[in-house]
Amino acid sequence: MQFGIFSVGDVTTDPTDGRTPSEAERIASMTQLALKAEEVGLDVFATGEHHNPPFVVSSPTTHLGYIAAKTENLILSTSTTLITTNDPVKIAEDYAFLQHLSGGRVDLMMGRGNTGPVYPWFGKDIRDGIKLAVENYHLLRKLWREPVVNWQGEFRTPLQGYTSTPAPLDGTPPFVWHGSIRSSEIAEQAAYYGDGFFHNHIFWNKEHTEAMVKLYRRRFEHYGHGAADQAYVGLGGQVFMASTEAEAKRTFRPYFDNAPVYGHGPSMEEFTKMTPLTVGTPEQVIERTLGFADYVGDYQRQLFLIDHAGLPTSLVMEQMEMLGTEVVPVLRKEFERRRPAHVPSDPPTHTSLVAAGPDAPHHLVEPARARAEELAQAQA
Amino acid sequence: MTHRVLVVTAGLTVPSSTRLLADQLAEATSAQVGARGESVEVEYVELREVAGELATFMTTGGIPTPRLTELRERVSAADGLIAVTPVFNASFSGLFKMFFDALDPDALTGTPVLVAATAGSARHSLVLDHAMRPLFAYLRAVVVPTGVFAATEDFGSHGLSDRITRAASELASLVLSQGDYGVGGFAPDLAARPRRTPGTQVESDVTPFGDLLRGHTGSDPR
């Protein structure tokens, strides 16, 4: 199972001393976070992508390329790559290039983004969000899998005789996750292609997350990629730890109370009950996190949100230390203990995808096409 | 068959004149449904009881809370709605609006709604028409022609009970005609039936991806 962290890359004032980091400081602290992830034995660092203040994360592959050069084993990922407003041609090129730089330590999580004006800034219409995600991702799959692409869709200028360069490392496109909080269409999309499904989880109640993951699992099986419990599931999580629960709460409360996303609303205690947020000891975090598998099933990737709401880098690094030394080693052991033998522990990696060979379904643009046609015929 | 009418009231005090008006509207509606040989079950929702949950819902981008989720489901399961608000600063109260802001845009599609308001003086009576009707029109609800406005002084007048009876009668007729979408064989167009959902559940009947992909594979005839 893979464990890691995901960052939204916000520049937020520290509510305890009123200090706001500069963009340079924030970028440097994210880099430090990623390097720390590898140092303490985590598997994944995922960066968000935004194109508006107060975020700094407008250029994920630049950042991930730098981190790739400074790390050996860390998987570089995104949370999320905007499949709606980015040109899929540029995504195909940038992330294939990153594969080559990093020796294949790349996967991506597709998302639609959540800031309305970003769509018109990039010449798109937010009301087309789902259609853009569908069309652009399909084109991305072709660009990574067909040597020469001829394309005419609804949203981008047509392509005639286009070859995306560099081709994916070892002719093997990166594994892709699809992140969605509410849209059943995106769970369906992930299931159709046999890709992973990631639920942000941290702003929602567990019943909702459970329903979204169940939908994805059911449709993954429907499209013939394997049994429902073998589908690739990733979850977010949000924690703040100290050696006692009281200390964790005392330290984190001002950050919680002023957090950009949920501050000035529910109390930390209410939010802890409503969502997976855990503020307490490493033992409490372990217990809560293990409980996630009780409602989504045995899953493959757990990413934690650690560096937000204005938390200073020093505190974030302490959290990383605890996560790496006290929490994740226990989680690894306990999650494997409960996992049935036929359920994969890890999601596909570059190594496993290369090992599966060029005839594996991963290399098809639409691995489920034949199956879907069969099903449609049977229904008719 | 028993019909269900939900009374949503945004009164803040106990007792409140808003609830008093709501009670009279509910009783009159029960009587009007009864007079048509049918029965109705009336349920009350005091928005004050979910004020905190509404604030949570708004500040967290819509995290569902237990009581609010249940209320949203009850709203979308009701055959009719009686919505009553006090007038604050020339419009419905903020609490009243917060509740309707927390509903799915399809929560009330095609649902009969009786609008009513209370205020200290008759000068606010147009709130029914300049604030409440547009809100329910946006939600594609069917607002009955008679709205009921009660200024404090109206609680001592005849006119109010006449208006209550007329509005209740209109609501009763619409509640009882729910579900008529043409006689089978004559109007088979079930697609025309209003779609209604509380928006509290993940939809399990997902659109098959082949349909989502149609026209977007890059090689479809355009």
TrEMBL record, chain A:
InterPro entries: Bact_Lucif_Oxidored, LLM_FMN-dep_put, Luciferase-like_dom, Luciferase-like_sf. One of its GO terms (molecular function) is oxidoreductase activity, acting on paired donors, with incorporation or reduction of molecular oxygen. It holds the Pfam family Bac_luciferase. Residues 1-294 form the Luciferase-like domain. Coiled coil: none annotated. SUPFAM superfamilies: Bacterial luciferase-like. GO terms for cellular component: cytosol. Keywords: Monooxygenase, Oxidoreductase. PANTHER family: BLR5498 PROTEIN (PTHR30137:SF8), LUCIFERASE-LIKE MONOOXYGENASE (PTHR30137). NCBIfam families: LLM_CE1758_fam. This is 5,10-methylene tetrahydromethanopterin reductase.
Automatic annotation (TrEMBL), chain B:
GO terms for molecular function: oxidoreductase activity. Residues 190-222 are annotated as: Disordered. This is FMN reductase. Residues 4-154 form the NADPH-dependent FMN reductase-like domain. Residues 213-222 have a biased composition (Basic and acidic residues). It comes from the Bacteria. The keyword Flavoprotein applies. It comes from Nocardioides alpinus. It holds the Pfam family FMN_red. The lineage of its organism: Bacteria, Bacillati, Actinomycetota, Actinomycetes, Propionibacteriales. Keywords: Flavoprotein, FMN, Oxidoreductase.
